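## retry 2 of 3
previous attempt timed out at serialization; input unchanged, resubmitting
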Amino acid sequence: MANLVYKRVSTDQQSTARQNLVLDEAGIEEPVVFEEQAGTSSGAIRTAVADLMPDHTAVEENAPAPELPVTLDMPGKVADYLRTTELEPAERVALDEGTTVRRGQGYTLRVTAVPALHRQLLNRCQPLDGGQGLPAVPAQRKARREYENRVSALTPI
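## retry succeeded, writing output
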């Protein structure tokens, strides 16, 4: 899967230098970059998608842009739980293709998937909150809630 990157700034006095730094830190290899001129509207994302993915074109001015993959850090305790759970093929692929990032004593798994898939994975780890006859482990509950906060910050359905 190609890594599509959209960069823009609001004014001529700003630059994309910080965005470049974040890309370098993330270790994204050979991204396909679409960079807008300063002052363009947020509707330019639809144009970027149309330019980068020729099979897809924006039909109407107000048509929503297709859902693009996003990268979220999944706490290791959530990833460990999901690896032992029966998953759909797309969910399994997203986990298997995730990048492990060491964090102090533990790790996080950097997972790239469309928001709907992140929501599915979040739903699968509901048992970490306890219930259904399973005891809640505070560290697992906290990890699930961290992932929930990241998923909730994505654009609503």
